[in-house]
Amino acid sequence: MSNPVFSNSPVFGDPNDRRARARAQAGGAATATVDAATLDRMYEAPAATARQTGRLTYDDVIMKTAGVFAVLVVSAAVTWTLVPGLWIVGAVVGLVLGLVNAFKREPSPALILAYAVAQGMFLGGISLFFEQELPGIVVQAVLATFSVFAASLFLFRSGRVRVTPKFVRWLLVAMVGYLMFSLVNVGLMLFGGTGEFGPLRSGPLGIIVGLVAVGLAAASLIVDFDSIKRGVEQGVPAKFAWSAAFGLAVTLIWLYLELLRLIAIFRE
């Protein structure tokens, strides 16, 4: 059975089949001739766009991403202003929802927006803490995040950085290594009681690690852009714009936190 989206479309449907049905229903050669002319005009009409056929478009991704970040920013602002102490709740809930959304085969807009709310709570509280210690740091981190995002998009669109299987393997290995490093640092911080960033994330070493982390986040953004591009070119369903928005949100939140920590190390 053919796809009903195409078989029921006056643009993509088979004009020969429609002409045959028209002849059978009309019962006369004159009517068949008129129907054939009508069908020819329909067949020669402009092709349906990706949006009309329910396929993913860049506009879909932009709109869904803007919606996710609007929810995140509102949640962060409310938390910053009213209940900054709930940042730990947002961190835990955001982690759980992030894992759930990452492993779902079909995107759930409700869960993705809930993730944005939780992460907004986390970012609102943690950003206020940094801002109280180092006034102006949040604006610096936000501007730096936008700058890295723009640079990554430029490198991807210009073709200066290409996403190849080798590039993806390198990024995967580097991120696993960084994750293990971070876990060791957190363990030393919790059980050794040394520094708010841990002994491995302070001083010159902390700056080097922070720059590496920002580089990994920027590379992850480039891979995200490539995934979105392939999704649009392959004509995946439009609902996966939510998945693209979720993926970009995860990477940009990570990038913002790394820049926030890196700027704090520089300023201290």
TrEMBL record:
<feature type="transmembrane region" description="Helical">
    <location>
        <begin position="168"/>
        <end position="191"/>
    </location>
</feature>
<keyword id="KW-1133">Transmembrane helix</keyword>
<feature type="transmembrane region" description="Helical">
    <location>
        <begin position="203"/>
        <end position="223"/>
    </location>
</feature>
<feature type="transmembrane region" description="Helical">
    <location>
        <begin position="86"/>
        <end position="103"/>
    </location>
</feature>
<keyword id="KW-0472">Membrane</keyword>
<feature type="transmembrane region" description="Helical">
    <location>
        <begin position="136"/>
        <end position="156"/>
    </location>
</feature>
<feature type="transmembrane region" description="Helical">
    <location>
        <begin position="110"/>
        <end position="130"/>
    </location>
</feature>
<dbReference type="Pfam" id="PF12811">
    <property type="entry name" value="BaxI_1"/>
</dbReference>
<protein>
    <recommendedName>
        <fullName>Integral membrane protein</fullName>
    </recommendedName>
</protein>
<keyword id="KW-0812">Transmembrane</keyword>
<feature type="transmembrane region" description="Helical">
    <location>
        <begin position="244"/>
        <end position="266"/>
    </location>
</feature>
<dbReference type="InterPro" id="IPR010539">
    <property type="entry name" value="BaxI_1-like"/>
</dbReference>
